[in-house]
Amino acid sequence: MKTVNPNQWTRREFTVQSVLTMLSGVAITLSSCGGDSNSSTAPSTTSTTSTTSMSGDNVGVVGANHGHTAVITAAQLTAANAVSLDISGSADHPHTVNLTDTEVGQIAGGTRVQKASSNDDGHAHTVTFN
Questions:
Q1: Cβ atoms 88, 68 nearer than 8 A
Q2: Cα-trace Rg, the chain
Q3: I need a surface site. Which of 16, 42, 48, 100 has the fewest CB within 10 A?
Q4: How many helices (H) and strands (E) does the chain have?
Q5: How far is CA 98 from CA 61, 73, 81, 108, 114, in A?
Q6: Coil, helix or strand at residue 96
Q7: pLDDT, position 97
Q8: 31 versus 105: which is more confidently predicted?
Q9: Is 59 helix (H, G, I), strand (E, B) or coil?
Q10: Using CA atoms, how far apart are residues 126 and 71, in angstroms rounded to an integer?
């Protein structure tokens, strides 16, 4: 992770750092994942509760995570249009999660939505919002 002067952080970098700070004291239980293509070796968080940042962004839980971050901004939630999220985060490869306008509206309303990411680098992730 690059070191950046906090006065020069982008909104995404600030959100990621804020979430990481909030979760730094949280215990996460790891178990085998059944949904990803490399499920026999990939850990998965058993928590499926996303968080809402102070800015109103919704941060999803990425199964079998190794550095990915899935964030729907408050503006995207308010607009309730279809979105394509780049969940690369600090991982060294990309993944994309495509949400329909209906799904974004459901997430904004507090309904749990799970979506599979694109299959990149030989695997995919399940992302859970709410």
A1: yes
A2: 14
A3: 100
A4: 3, 9
A5: 15, 14, 11, 15, 11
A6: strand
A7: 96
A8: 105
A9: strand
A10: 14
DSSP letter, residue 80: T
Largest CA distance in the chain: 42
Q: How far apart are CA 28 and CA 5, in angstroms?
A: 29
State pLDDT tens for residues 17-63: 776 666 555 444 433 333 444 433 333 344 556 666 667 899 999 99
Residue 99 to residue 18: CA distance in whole angstroms? 24
Q: Which residues pair with 114 in a beta bridge?
A: 128
**Structure tokens of 27?**
């215990």
The structure tokens 């499926």 sit at 48
pLDDT, tens digit, for every residue of 89-101? 999 999 999 999 9
Residue 12: which residues within 8 A CB-CB, separation 6 or more? 71
| pTM beyond cutoff 0.90 | no
How would you classify the pairing of strands 58-62 and 126-129?
Answer: antiparallel
Q: Residues 72, 58: contact at Cβ < 8 Å?
A: yes
The burial class, CB within 10 Å (0-12 / 13-18 / 19+), for 17 is middle
